[in-house]
């Protein structure tokens, strides 16, 4: 009799434990899924504010935007932007974070924007472009993210169009493919000066990060002239990223966009 009672008690305990574990797993999965933003379905950009409760994704100074040239304020640049890219700067690693291909940099390259120094932290890509110029969507957009010592952010947005091969993109893509959720150490030199960025022809405005938490008060510098890369290079990047990893156009909300010449 005692043996039967003991077996019954053990069975009940196992059932209760199993139910609790199932609930915990289910809750964990729900929490994980709840906070996993993406570019499609119920976790697409239109739903980011529902997923990221403490974000700025519903703010009034969001990015990207459609830049209409005739509506910009033209100003003399007065050396507001200076770019200091060295051929000795090292890429530390490349990562496929499930949202884009991202290259992280060691200390070296920097920009000076409005008398403040910002250090290049990482480069990532969006296909097609997030920013538009006069309604035109480009095949690719590269974001060079810079941060100063106070934590302020300045991003260089470089649009790309299809044409001849780019040695810079050939170098980037030499580390691909890379699986979702993985990274590779690189520690190799890269010379970004080959981008030939024209510091006298760019648009600037105050916006946000284009991914959660959509942090605002980001200095955006979008170059008017696109860089050239081949169709094959565009496709290779595209095959390593989510399809259409771009955020939809955001309202300007009375912000001023400057054209710096």
Features:
261 residues; alpha+beta; Carbonic Anhydrase II; 13-stranded mixed beta sheet; 20% helix; zinc ion binding; Alpha_CA_prokaryot-like
Helix/strand layout:
Layout (H helix, E strand, L loop, with lengths): L1 H33 L13 H4 L14 E2 L5 E3 L5 E4 L5 E7 L4 E5 L4 E4 L2 E11 L5 E2 L6 E8 L5 E10 L4 H7 L9 E7 L12 E7 L7 E8 L3 E3 L1 H8 L19 E3 L1
Parallel strand pairs: 1-8, 2-15, 10-13, 10-14
Antiparallel strand pairs: 3-6, 4-5, 4-11, 5-7, 6-7, 7-9, 9-10, 12-13, 12-15
Task: Describe, in plain words, how this protein is organized in 3D.
This protein is an alpha+beta fold and 261 residues long. The protein has one domain (54-260): Roll (Carbonic Anhydrase II), CATH 3.10.200. Helices cover 20% and strands 32% of the residues. It has helices spanning 2-34, 48-51, 167-173, 231-238, and strands at residues 66-67, 73-75, 81-84, 90-96, 101-105, 110-113, 116-126, 132-133, 140-147, 153-162, 183-189, 202-208, 216-223, 227-229, 258-260. Strands 2, 3, 4, 5, 6, 7, 9, 10, 11, 12, 13, 14 and 15 form a 13-stranded mixed beta sheet that branches. A hairpin with a 7-residue loop joins strand 12 (202-208) and strand 13. It is globular and about 40 Å long. It starts with a helix and ends with a strand. Mean pLDDT is 88; it is low at 5-34.
């Amino acid at each position: 009799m005692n043996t039967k009672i003991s077996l019954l008690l053990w069975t009940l305990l196992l059932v209760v434990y199993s139910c609790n574990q199932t609930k915990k797993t289910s809750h964990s999965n729900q929490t994980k899924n709840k906070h996993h933003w993406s570019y499609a379905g119920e976790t697409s950009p239109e739903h980011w504010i529902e997923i990221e409760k403490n974000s700025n994704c519903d703010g009034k100074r969001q990015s990207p935007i459609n830049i209409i040239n005739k509506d910009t304020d033209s100003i003399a640049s007065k050396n507001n932007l200076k770019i200091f890219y060295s051929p000795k700067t090292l890429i530390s690693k490349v990562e496929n974070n499930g949202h884009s291909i991202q290259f992280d940099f060691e200390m070296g390259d920097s920009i000076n924007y409005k008398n403040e120094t910002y250090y290049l932290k990482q480069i990532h890509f969006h296909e097609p472009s997030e920013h538009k110029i006069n309604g035109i969507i480009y095949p690719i957009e590269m974001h060079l993210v810079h941060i100063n010592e106070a934590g302020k952010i300045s991003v260089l947005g470089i649009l790309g169009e299809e044409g001849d091969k780019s040695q810079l993109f050939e170098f980037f893509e030499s580390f691909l493919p890379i699986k979702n959720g993985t990274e590779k150490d690189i520690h190799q030199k890269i010379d970004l000066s080959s981008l030939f960025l024209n510091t006298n022809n760019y648009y600037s405005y105050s916006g946000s990060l284009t991914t959660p938490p959509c942090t605002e008060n980001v200095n955006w510098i979008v170059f008017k002239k696109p860089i050239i890369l081949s169709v094959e290079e565009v496709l290779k990047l595209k095959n390593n990223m989510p399809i259409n990893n771009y955020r939809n156009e955001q309202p300007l909300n009375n912000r001023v966009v400057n054209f710096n010449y």
